[in-house]
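Support case: S-adenosylmethionine complex. Customer-provided input:
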Amino acid sequence: MDPHFDYLMDEILQNPKCCRHFLNMGQFLLSEGHFLESLGFLNKARKLGDDSFRLYFLLGKVYLFLSCSEKSLSHFKKALEKKPSHEETKYIINALDGERHVSARSLKTSVVKGLFDDYADKFENHLINKLNYKTPKKLVKFFLAQTEKKMALKIWEKETPLVLDLGCGTGLFARELKQKLNNSQIVGVDLSSQMLKQAIKKDVYFELYQEDLLKFLAQEKKKNNSYNLIAACDTIPYLGDLEEFFEKSCLILKPEGFLLFSFEALKDDRGEWFSFFNGRFKHSLSYVMSLAKKNNLRGEVKLETLREEKGERVKGCFFWGRSIKIKKTDNFF
Ligand SMILES: C[S@@+](CC[C@H](N)C(=O)[O-])C[C@H]1O[C@@H](n2cnc3c(N)ncnc32)[C@H](O)[C@@H]1O
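Agent response - structure generated as follows:
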């Protein structure tokens, strides 16, 4: 076991009535991705009388990772009562409290960074083994099927395809893509330094940047850099409004370049996007398609199972669009 775990356990054994030691252990286990174990120690701290901001904040986070969104929300609310000026807590509550905050344009980047920094070490194990997450593999397969069907990859046989992986996380998408298109040169961008640390180990990236993806897209435009493929695998759920994402991506797509992403599907009658209790956004098909049309992309959408939550399949979509010069009369999709 980790020496820090041993140290914290010794503290508990020496002072079994001290709630602070249980709290410290709960925090450590959370950072290691042992969510259920963390919950046990945090609850014990509470039984021993802890009533602090830190306790409720950590409980909020643990329940968020366990996808118990309502419990998460109620603990973040208690945390805010203790520290009404705490910005991160306020933003998480806004994001989680979907019904009353439909207008939230996206999650604050510091909140996303905090969530993924805490989660990075256990991200792959949790997603792949517990949530049956196959989105990167399926998205690459979908992309290759679409492009092969249209002979669209012919041009890539002659030149190195330049790929931008937005919200690259630990590099699962890039690893899949590199296996199929080994001559591609992939640039990864992510907010979380800890996720990027895992991504480096995959040894599939040409370059990696810690940056907000919208800022990065704008910087690339200024530098006159452009890409054959811009991909965002399971990143769109952290953005609400997609106008800027589409516009900025399309500005740096090469002619005939591709925009590819997965998103969680919202029924069209519920509007354009919606923030749910788990802090992620869903987007309606009609919204995505209207932005594609507005930005001169022609493509397709496919319904897919993205992962499982509490034994239920989470339904989503894959979007594939190709940058084209169009006549006003063209029909899309
Ligand atoms: C669910 S993970 C997906 C990671 C990877 N694409 C995959 O499929 O395994 C979402 C990632 O998007 C990143 N992310 C979310 N919003 C972002 C933003 N605005 N800019 C850069 N990265 C962002 C998070 O830090 C996280 O690593």
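The longest strand covers residues 253-266.

Case will auto-close in a few days if no follow-up is received.
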